[in-house]
Amino acid sequence: MADTATPNVIRRADYAPPAFLIDTVALEFDLVPERTVVRNTMRVRRNPDASHASNLELMGEQLEFVSAAIDGAPFANAHAHEHGLTLENVPENFELTLTSICNPAENTTLSGLYVSGGNFFTQCEAEGFRRITYFLDRPDVMATFTVTLRASKADYPVLLSNGNLLEEGDLPDGRHFARWEDPFRKPSYLFALVAGKLVALEERVKSGSGKEKLLQVWVEPHDLDKTRHAMDSLINSIRWDESRFGLELDLDRFMIVAVSDFNMGAMENKGLNIFNTKYVLANPETATDTDFANIEAVVGHEYFHNWTGNRVTCRDWFQLSLKEGLTVFRDQEFSADMAGGATDEAARATKRIEDVRVLRQMQFAEDAGPMAHPVRPESYVEINNFYTMTVYEKGSEVVRMYQTLFGRDGFRKGMDLYFKRHDGQAVTCDDFRHALADANGRDLAQFERWYSQAGTPRVSVRTKYDAAQQRYSVTLTQGYGDAAPAARETQKGPLLIPFAIGLIGKDGADLPLQLEGETKASGSTTRVLDFTQTEQTFTFVNVAQEPLPSLLRNFSAPVIVEYDYSADELAFLLAHDSDPFNRWEAGQRLATRELLTLAGRATTGVPLQLDDSVVAAFARVLTDESLSPSFRELALMLPSEAYLAEQMAESNPAAVHAARQFVRKRLANALRKDWLAVYEKHRTPGAYEATPEASGHRALKNLALSYLAELDDPAEAVRLASAQYDAANNMTDRSAALSALLNAAAANGGSVEAQQALDDFYRRFEKEPLVIDKWFALQATQRGSAQRPVIEIVRKLMAHPAFNLKNPNRARSLIFSFCAANPAQFHAEDGSGYAFWADQVIALDAINPQVAARLARSLELWRRFTPTLRDGMRAALEKVASQVKSRDVREIVEKALA
């Protein structure tokens, strides 16, 4: 990492400590939308641990340089350039004062200081601070910050920054000021300010040590009634982190601010978290059960960063998963504990299933494509492109494996040692690994490969039963199969894989487990095997009958398991496995196998048929009242079209869609009475409750409605959906009813009921931006038909008065939803979807490269599709490559085409 202009490729191997350090920063802002003046006074000194440099090189982008002074005297040897500011022949230790100007009103990138809805906001991660003032904008330069904000009191009555409020007051000419101090050293990416017309929901709570804390959720005035759930989630997060990890809130106050124009979900700036409104605002009329759950998870995630990311931060951006993977793990554990505590394994498994579904569908695909990279990347062109599923979700799985290896108590010991060693420091993934290893007396040198090897490992399993000796041998072999080039290039040897296994007898009960060499059975019916070699055999003794293995219980490692279960064995596991995750997994394997067979037939035009045994297996789950509604909803949900297409040797979205729709129709018609019975049984009359139990009932009921909409004669489903839409007292039921109406209408080229509901939905909620996002997304993801292709609907919606390409949420709701979540329509053979994609990537690149780059990734797996689709995707990629200017998008398309 150089202090100078960013090179074309940044490599982890080139890291060098900064030549200078900054100990204190005093920022003064005169906030004016078109011309904000920033005065930055820093205490700078040479870094004794770095190579000597005569010049101080500061980063800066889109800034107007005004002046520089050292120790109070004007400094003439300061030269501004496109990438920053060079100060020649500076002293060893000095006070540097810089004055510069930026234009927040014209900052459409939403990186740095920008204006949204007439208010000022910031987003500094990863490299936005250099758009605010000249600085050593890198995470290993940590300083304490004092911030003074000045602005028109009428236009910006609320002035916020990191830390604790020191003073505020009025100034001449209708202006006012506020001065904030953050007592904790932090890198510049954690800086934040907010100024505008906002109101707050406030709560005062006491920390575990008895100190009073002020909590605030700041929003625009008309959104105040949608803040209670975010506040409750924050309080729960604070309590959980105290209880689970002994970590208290360290500031006098903690603030959340919601903004509608935001590139990310939220940002963990110290004490002043800035959130996308999507992850703050919720009430029953405007937010779904999924929204409520996501708000709880994201509020938890950003609060947990206070320690895992802020108090201990990453040395360089290659270590991004140090904070993100760890904090995703923490928010997943928080959500699981909120749903089921530490002991309700069925409730916790529901959360686990949801997380693994996302990992498999998105991160496994990333591992197989041109953007494949290790959890700790070795190089990048644009760091914004590495806020990826691999860094976050696979990074979380790597952290989870520590807990699987050492248990909750051992993991807590490792966390305690990590904070004891590194509080207030910028460190590496290796520092975290060493703390976990040392706290538990374990050599984890081999475990480092999880950070440095790309790709999804595959574990093939062979079993052998010796009835005479009552021995059952399990042979595990690990490798990467036909992995992406990045995976092949980074492989260094076998991984340490914690592989959880159980053995199930013919009566469906778990068998006792005793490994060869042990004097007695362990007492647990799940055993975590330390799988450390390329091939390794584990032999269980005193196995009285030939068992059926339950493999990788609770998804104990982020790997693909290859074992040739028969359809009957999968049905048996679906009915009997005591591990809730593997019970779900058996059903998904069964469905995936059948669907891929059907997709193959659809490709060649062979008539489709579904075996009665598959219908029977689904019927058993649907009617099994001993299973929780939330689990049944997940178990009855077919694998997504995107996931299925990725499992094909040559992806054919049309064939996958035909197969999946055939199965849904078959299940709908064969189990019609059962779906109707479930729909009636799981209604939730009365006032809306955002509890896991109530959410589970609604989820199962609405899944039943979605299947009923597939009936050959959907009149009954249309009646039920119309009645549900009209009577709904919550957004979960209303949006599910609208979705069912749209899908029931798809085969008929539209319907009066669906159009009436769409029109009514818009009229009801046209002043609720987040709900209108749902309105756009529902239309972009509807099934469509030959008579009514969705691309035509999307193009018309692009011209709708409510659509605004500059707003990331709105762009995601329509464009991303169509391109990423409607594969059968997006991948039309005429290439219309690809032409649309190219136009939108180019348009977004000109205003917001970060958002454009996310959209650009929709075609990165183009080589895996059928020849006709490949040709269309390649042409679209080449068009984009020839026209875009940002490093963000160029890196994506050039890697895809390489």
Spatial gap, N to C terminus? 25 Å
Task: State the domain count.
Answer: 5
Strand content: 15-25%
Number of helices: 27
Strand order of the largest sheet: 6-5-9-3-2-12-15-14
* CATH classification class of the largest domain: Mainly Beta
Instruction: State the total count of DSSP E strands.
Output: 31
- Unreliable runs: 1-6
CATH fold-level topology of the largest domain: Immunoglobulin-like
Supply the CATH architecture of the largest domain.
Sandwich
Helical content stands at 40-55%
Instruction: Specify the structural class.
Output: alpha+beta
Compute the CA-based radius of gyration: 28 Å
Q: Per the principal axes of the C-alpha atoms, what is the gross shape?
A: globular
The residue-averaged pLDDT reads: 96
Pfam families: DUF3458, DUF3458_C, Peptidase_M1, Peptidase_M1_N
Domain Peptidase M1 alanyl aminopeptidase Ig-like fold: 455-564
Domain Aminopeptidase N-like N-terminal: 86-190
InterPro entries: Aminopeptidase_N-like_N, Aminopeptidase_N-like_N_sf, PepN_Ig-like_sf, Peptidase_M1, Peptidase_M1_dom, Peptidase_M1_pepN, Peptidase_M1_pepN_C, Peptidase_M1_pepN_C_sf
What tags apply to this protein structure?
Immunoglobulin-like; disordered N terminus; alpha+beta; 31 strands; single chain; 5-stranded mixed sheet; 898 residues; Zincin-like; 27 helices
